[in-house]
Structures are given as structure tokens and as C-alpha cells.
Amino acid sequence: MSATATRLLDNYVGGQWTPATAASEALDVTNPATGEVLARVPLSGRADLDAAVTAAREALPAWRAVSTIGRARKLFELRERLVGRREDLARAVTTEMGKTIDDARAEVARMIEMVEAACAIPTTMQGRILEDVSRNIDAETIRQPVGVCAAIVPFNFPAMVPFWFLPFAIGCGNTFILKPSEQVPLTQQIAFEELDALGLPPGVVNLVNGGRDVVDGILDHPGIDAVSFVGSAPVAKLVYERAAKAGKRVQALGGAKNHMVVMPDAVIEQTVNGIVGSAFGAAGQRCMAGSVVVTVGEAHERLLPALREATEALSVGDGLDAATSVGPVVSCAARDRITEWIDRGIADGGTVVVDGRDAGAALNPGGAFVGPTILDDVAPDAAIVQEEVFGPVLTIVKADSLDDAIAMVNRSRFGNGTSIFTESGAAVRRYRHEVEAGMIGVNIGVAAPVAFFPFSGWKDSFLGDLHAHGPDAVEFYTRKKTVTSRYFSSGQGHGSYFVES
Ligand code: NAD
User: Fold this and answer.
1) If you classify domain 35-254+461-482 with CATH, what class do you get?
2) Measured in angstroms, how far is the CA atom of residue 233 from the centroid of ligand 1?
3) Which partner from 91, 276, 355, 495 sits 20 to 30 angstroms from 49, CA to CA?
4) Could you tell me the pTM of the whole model?
């Protein structure tokens, strides 16, 4: 193991790369395809977070003094810098998280798209004005930054998810603290090298590595005004409640269980492509991964042979290998948890169509591999159909009708995304209208909205009212201030403010 391979990562605080001085311990960051230790990440302590909050608060006046257009120009520059590093970013994503290099490149493209959307801040942050709300009296609402904003993010999109927040937050004039996932902290080290090169006022962006201590500190800290969270449903609930109790603005995006409904008239070849990409892309570790197929009527017999064939054709391996279609899951602990879920699904009556439990046998023994797995004819109320597995495991349930399928989807406590595969506009109209999920794909397997639209999960998949990115980001990262005004020397005369004359 080389010296650089075991480097202990720094935090980035007040415009400087800074060691975590209050860390309780450091964890290995590993490549899940090989088990190789890539670096060590400190679990920072409260004093490390305090330093970041102090820097972020001190930076607020200087950053707010930069014009809106000046802030947007910094985002344009950031965009160019990230484009210049996109291959480094993609390789970091694959190396620390496991997804295939093509998938990582797509993630980095979406990360950059977030910056592009935030470049529109001089337009999207505009307020509104109404002249003559009474005679010669005007009312206007302006938007101002919220203050110090923090984001706590998951392992599955090391590049993109932090950028659901960072560019919009700073574009609106806030300062920002990021706590990356301790499982995948390396990608954001590269992003912060580029942020550092922008020459922002020190403290505008800060990076604090760590785990639960840093999260608890963020939730309670009186110096933090707004918190964004993305991760599993139980932690989302905890974050939402605790941050709200401390009086903060909060949005908490949680786990998911996404259904893909296949109607009898679906175009099978493209439907299979969509399902396979959704269920097994990123080894099923996307919050928009479809993990339950609901076949309606004869769709089952039309779909199953082609789905089996396409799944068996997938090759499992190191995501850096161009021939790989499914990389490892994030860790050996995740692999073991997913394998137990497959055992349980079979014990609960699922019929094995494709079994990925031994996929790692012929691969690197240090790797965290689970192959694509399909269980057919699973009871709709089985735990594997209701709970999030977060791995390459697809269950198939049968429905008699579209009504039946909609009822199954709506029974889930989650409501992130769902897809319908059909050529029937009438079926789509009903599905879109009645289904209780916030992001809908029509003949699209992963209906993750582009940066210019909100990431609009429902039910246990989202706690809060303002979603990530799109127009919601500007709502979340600004406070409205409404001014009512008149001037006596204008020579225009005045009515009463309350009684129109
Ligand atoms: P996770 O909940 O384990 O961790 C998320 C973050 O919370 C990490 O930064 C982690 O350090 C911190 N954390 C973990 N446990 C904590 C605790 N007990 N107290 C305080 N902080 C804690 O999630 P993960 O495994 O990193 O990510 C996968 C999950 O994220 C899946 O459930 C997936 O569906 C979800 N996810 C949701 C979305 C969405 O948009 N809804 C997007 C991506 C991922």
C-alpha cells in the first residue's frame, strides 16, 4: 500500500484545507471492487464543525456584498472547471462507490447540469412588484439569502447529490457546509479543489468530513439556518424532526421503493431495456431504481422471457472495466445485507428467475459483488416488496388490472418515483392522475428530473415542503421580504393605505 493510498483526508474550512483536529477516529475508504484502501476519512468532532460554522457566518456579509450577477459568474467559472475535471470526478465516483464508469460519467454530467441551472440565479431569484396597491403606494417582495446552509448526503451519488444543493445555496448568497458520506468522501475532495480555485471569500463553502457526530452537531447548531438531507428514511425522519425543533428550515429526502407497471400493450424490447437499466444500474443503489415490476394481465408472459434473457446477459465486475454492466455494491456489509434479503424473499415464496448471490465467486475476493437477481410471483405484501433493499434485486408481482396495479403502488409507504410502460394514453392519464408518487416515468425507467425541475418525492420518501433543485431550490434558499412604500414628495398625492380612494 503506497503512502498516498493511506492519506488522511482534510476538511476544507474558511478557504483552507484543514486537518480535523477533534476527530474521534478515522475510517478506511475502500474500493468496493477490490477491497483496496484508498484513503482514510476522519470522523470530525464538534470543534471541527464549530470552526466551519464560524467561517461560514463570517463570510456571509462579504458574499452578500458580491452582486447577484457576480455570484452567477463564479458559478459559470465553476461549471468550466468541473467540465475540465469531469473524467477525474467520474473515476473517483467509480473507484469509491462502485458504479460503472459510464454511469459515473452520466452522474457527473448531471452534477454539472445543477451548476448550469444555478447560473440562472439573476433571473430565478427575482422578486415581484405590484404598483398602486393603493393610490401611489407600491408593494414588492424581494428575496434574500437564508444564511448558513448545510447539507448531509448519502453514498450513492458522491458527485451529484451534494450539487443538488451547493450551487443553488451559494448562488442565492448563502454560505454552505457540506458533510459528505463517510463511505465516499473522495469525489468531493476534487470538487472542493475546484471550488478552492474560484477564489471565493473564505468560508463561503466548507467541507466537514464525518458521521453521526457531525450530523447531530449540524441539527442542533444555533449558527446553522437551513439543513438539507438525503439518505435513508429513518435518518431522514430523525433529521427532519430534530432540525425543525431547533427552528431550522429543513428538507429531508428519504428512501424509496419504486414500482414499474407494465401494461399488456407495452413495447417489450424497450420496456425490458428500461426495466433492466432501472433495476440493475448502479447495482440497484439509486433512490429512483425500480425494484418492483407490476405486470398487468398477459404482460407477465410477454415480459418474463425477454427480461430473464437481458438480465442473464449482464456482466458483473469492476466498474472501471468497460465490459462491466453491473459494478459492486458499496461495501461488503451492504453485499451481505442484500444477500440476506434475497434469502428472505425466497423463504417468503418468491420464485428465483435469476440468482446473483454467487456472482462474486469468480471475481476479486475483496470485492462486494451481488449479481442481478429476479424473484417472480412474489406476494404483494411480502417484506421484500414493501421495504427498500437498495441492491440489484427485482421482484415481480402480478396484477389483474390497472386499478389493481395502482392500488398496489399506492399501498407503499414510499412515494419517490414510479414508471408505467404502455402505448395507451388513457392508461397513462389515469396512472399519472391517481398514483401517489412524486416523480413519474412514462416508458422511462429512471424518471429522475433534470436540474431545472424539482426532485419531487412524496410520502416517506420526502419530508418537507420545498424539494431539491429546480425552482424549489430558490424558494428553499431565500427568505421573502415584502416592502410597502410611498413617497410624499412625488407630487402625485396619496390615498389611505387601508381604504382605497
Ligand atoms: P444513510 O441514511 O445511511 O446516510 C445518509 C447520511 O446520513 C450520511 O451522510 C451518514 O453519515 C448520515 N447518517 C447515517 N446514519 C445516521 C444517524 N443514525 N444519525 C445521523 N446521521 C446519520 O443513507 P446511505 O446508506 O448513505 O444512502 C442510501 C439511502 O439514501 C437509501 O435509502 C436511498 O434511497 C436514499 N437516497 C434517497 C434519495 C432521494 O432523493 N430521496 C437520493 C439518494 C439516496
Assistant:
1) alpha beta
2) 8
3) 91
4) 0.97
